[in-house]
Each structure stands twice: as C-alpha cells, then as structure tokens.
Here is the input.
Amino acid sequence: VTRAQIKVLAEFAEDLDHQRALLDLCADGDTNVANYREQILGNRVSLLDLLQRYPSIMVPLNTGLELLPALRPRYYSISSAPAAGSDRCSITVGALIAPARAGGGVFRGTSSNFLARQPVGATVHGFIRPPGLPFYVPDDATTPMIMIATGTGLSPFRGFLQERAAQKAAGANLGPAILFYGCRLPDSDFIYEDQIRQYERGGIVEVVTAYSDVTDGTNAWVQDKVAEHGARVLDLMGQGGNVYICGGAETVAPALRETFARMYAEHNQVSADQGTEWFEAQRANNHYLEDVWAAH
Here is the structure.
C-alpha cells in the first residue's frame, strides 16, 4: 500500500487516534518515511490489513475500489523446450502459502494458488514474453553450461536439458554441462528427479545436489557445492562457458554472487576487489545470467 493510499484512508478514519497513526505513516519527515518503510513495506501490508487494523475507517465503496491496485502479471519460467513438442509448453509453479508478514493469518500467493486450484483441462490465459537476457541454451552446443537452481528454480533447466537431448539426438557434439541443484530433502523436494537422472545417465548433464535439511551430516547449501567444485567451474567459464542462476532474489542470488567473486579471488590468488571486478565483468558480458524472483 502506498503513502498516498494511506492518506486517503486517514480522511475516512472516524477515530482520531487511528487517523493520527495513519497520517504519521504518510507524513514527509525522515522518521515518518522510515516508519512507513519498516512497518508497511517491510511487512507487505495491504489495504485490507489496514482496514482490519483500523476498523474506524469508513471508506466509501467507490473510493475503496479506486484505491485497489491493478493486478500485475506474474512471470514464470517455461520449463519445457520447443524440441519437446512445439505445440505446447509447461511451467512449474510452487503454491506460495506462508505466515503473513503483516501479522496473523496466512499469506497465499495470488497467482500460484489460482493455478493450483484449477482442475485438469481448465483454460488459463497467458502470454509469452521473450527473455530480456540470453537466458537460453547457446546456439553452439559445445559451449559449456553451469546451471544452478534451488527449489522450483529447476524449471528452466528442465527445458534446457530437453533442448540438449534434442541437440544430441540430431548428432551435435555437446559441451560439458553441470547442474547444481539445492532443495531441502531428497525424497520430497527434488522435483523432476527421475527425468533429471535420466538425462544424467544419457550424458546430457552432470548433476551435483545439495540438501539443506538432511540430518546425516551431509547437509549443505547449493553455493557450498559450487565452491566445492570451484576449480572446475572456473575452468569451464574460462573456456567461454555460461553460468545460469534460477532461484530466490533475496537468498540464493546474493549468496552465489559472493561465492563466485570469492572463488575467483582464492583460486587466482588476487584481492577480493579483483574478484568482484572479474565477477561484474562476467555479468556485463552475459556469461553470468540470473532468472530470480522475490519472496512475498
């Protein structure tokens, strides 16, 4: 909810304490702005949350409807390749259900839960948007590929592996490809495992897994596994290989950025600043590509 929307709600608050609290949130002072960012933006507070928190707000229906923001489109990575069937595509979606940050109740992702409720055979409208970055299998099949994913971030790489399998079937010589995949538990959270293992047996990809919640002492984060194989990863990048990241923008993405910069610095015995400089050059040259999303 924006500060302008809060100001409108304050006009209709019949309780003076409620009105003052709302006006404080939308005032221009540095402290007020900081409180707004912490209390409202930081907790993803919605209009409905404020109406429940300040029940004296008697906003007219037409005004309330005008305050409602338009739903933004939700973008999902396509998890199939045209080579697997040109008349269809698939997406892989995890239904977002989590404790509400605003306090009390449960937050349910609008789009993911809408899709989860649809019966088999339902029609859902959408559109395809070309990627803004070259986040796809290189035209040159010999180009090394390093794919790193967590959770449903495996989605685009399922399509990548379908494409590589089609390239191999057509007689192409494939360059090396490694998939680093992280999830909580192997038995319940490794999506598409049977398909991925089949591609591994077929020489399409090498798979390295990281399970964060196992209790046998082998638990690790995906960035730990990348660092463990750092020499090979850097060698493949030195051969012109591309790194593809798919996962959380607030978790795995920053952890991997730090890991790659540190790996380069340590393996080449240079300063941390030089490692960061090298990493930023990889990003600028589209050799390090991210398809990441923010949590609710």
Notes: The mean pLDDT is 93. The first strand starts at residue 97 and ends at 99. The beta strands are 97-99, 106-108, 145-150, 177-183, 206-211, 242-248, 288-293.
